[in-house]
Amino acid sequence: PMAMAVVSIAPDGGTPGNPPADFTSVTLTTADNLHLGAWYAEPENGAVIILVHGAGGGRESVTGFAEMLHRSGFGVLAVSLSGFGDSEGQINRRGWNGTRDIGAAVTFLQARPEVRSIGGLGLSMGGEILLGAASTYPGLTAVAVDGATFRALNEYVMLPMNEPLYRNFTHRVLSFALGVFSGDSQPEPPILTSIQAAEGTSFLFIAAGNVDEEIAFNEFYQDAVGERGDLWIVPNAGHTGGFGSVPEEYERRVIEFFRAHLL
């Protein structure tokens, strides 16, 4: 866990490269005046999806998702989180500072006259960040997450099976070490609290069929929001592997979800 904490703040060497066709490069500004790199494509239908990458790379890692959303008429704002690629700030690959970055994206979109509704699609860490930000930014009225579990100890232990010390000791060490090394605090509110408080937001939880812990967390989250949440367990898929293994069904389910709740 000490090594994992060090890796969580290791600098990102990736570069975003050129944006996909029909996208332009834009800069977002956080409340504490950090500048974040992003790609933006305007919507044809008035709805824009904030697309948030996982811990492995910035917005260049979700190009396929951006193109999938945009060809169905949705606008897309693909953000590189703090410390990734050309975005300023210290990196935290556990997503502890992500709510601030989502705030910059929401502020940017709410100032655009072509935007009538806002949703979010997050992969792994990006999904956890969107869930944690849902109650802070009620303008996010539809959030789809793929491979989301937890960001820190305070979220890990909310799953009942993780309450015993023998289950959570490693995560206690990891969260403590990451806090010391980064100077960051565990994210608040925790995901469970956030999604329950986000009463105007609908959720689509996507879990990999081959990852038991992922299934457990997503079943737990779906149960917590009741009829506001749908759950899709992708058969025989690894972590965030649904888009690659069943691309047509993945696109159909995600697009139908956003059409139902944003248009």
Structure report:
The protein is α/β, with parallel strands linked by helices and 263 residues long. The chain has 10 helices and 8 strands. The protein has helices at residues 2-8, 63-70, 98-110, 125-133, 153-156, 165-182, 191-197, 212-225, 242-245, 247-262, and strands at 24-29, 35-41, 47-52, 75-79, 117-123, 140-146, 202-208, 229-234. It has an 8-stranded mixed sheet, sandwiched between helices. Strand 7 (202-208), helix 8 (212-225) and strand 8 (229-234) form a beta-alpha-beta unit. It is globular, with a radius of gyration of 17 Å. The model has no long low-confidence stretch (mean pLDDT 97).
**Proportion of residues in β-strands:** 15-25%
- Overall 3D geometry? globular
Unreliable stretches, pLDDT < 50, 5 or more residues? none
Report the span from N to C terminus: 44 Å
Look at the helices and sheets and give the structural class.
Answer: alpha/beta
- SSE string: HEEEHEHEHEHHHEHEHH
- For the CA atoms, what is the radius of gyration? 17 Å
SS element count, helices: 10
What is the number of E strands? Answer: 8
Strand order in the largest sheet: 1-2-4-3-5-6-7-8
Average pLDDT rating? 97
Taking the sheet with the most strands, its summary is: 8 strands, mixed
Helix content: 25-40%
Summarize it.
The chain has helices at residues 2-8, 63-70, 98-110, 125-133, 153-156, 165-182, 191-197, 212-225, 242-245, 247-262, and strands at residues 24-29, 35-41, 47-52, 75-79, 117-123, 140-146, 202-208, 229-234. The chain contains ten helices and eight strands.
